[in-house]
Amino acid sequence: MFKAVVTDVFFDLDHTLWDFEKNSALTFQKIFKSNELDIELARFLEIYVPLNLSFWRLYREEKISKEELRYQRLRTAFDQLGMFVSDDDINQLAEDYIANLSTFNHLFPGTLELLDYLKGSYKLHIITNGFEEIQEKKMRNAGILDYFKVVVNSEMAGVKKPHPKIFKMALEMADAQPKTSLMIGDSLEADILGAKNMGLHTLHFEYQKKLDHTICPSVMELSEIKNYL
Asked: Name one Pfam family in it (predicted).
């Protein structure tokens, strides 16, 4: 579908290539043990995961700072669990989480096969809202950094997806045109609508299988992207 027109493929990282939820769960398992916190991981994640998404939305909308995001998602989760955890312990957990997250390197099934398939025909790039200090570590430790010509994060751009400025910066750094560029990501708002508003082609990686829309084509497995490129 896109093969005849696309020269550059832009990927989101977390929840698209890098299996954020799996790596995050392993990180919490590790830091709870190292900090000697007796917490049922499954119960914690049941509360934390949706909270994290809601706080990330506030962060994306510039309503909270990075520091507030890191603190409040943990504080709110523990409060909802009915657990008292001191501010010092919250701050230590927040630091430990960032320090350890990139040490787990699970990718979505088919990531390496897809990148190998695409690299000879397209220029590949990353546009991510993740924190600058760990996104490159994630890619390097997972063995995928060298696939990408340009990696743009929200801290470099000074704005977060879906703001037009981050897509404009990525296109300029990649020396790419919107009409010959494709954005692939999991977030309908940040990745798909953000890129579409800038004139890029879009392909929605809908791995959670929850949404039904006609905004652009959707795939539920990375291997399906080969049908479009």
From this structure: Hydrolase
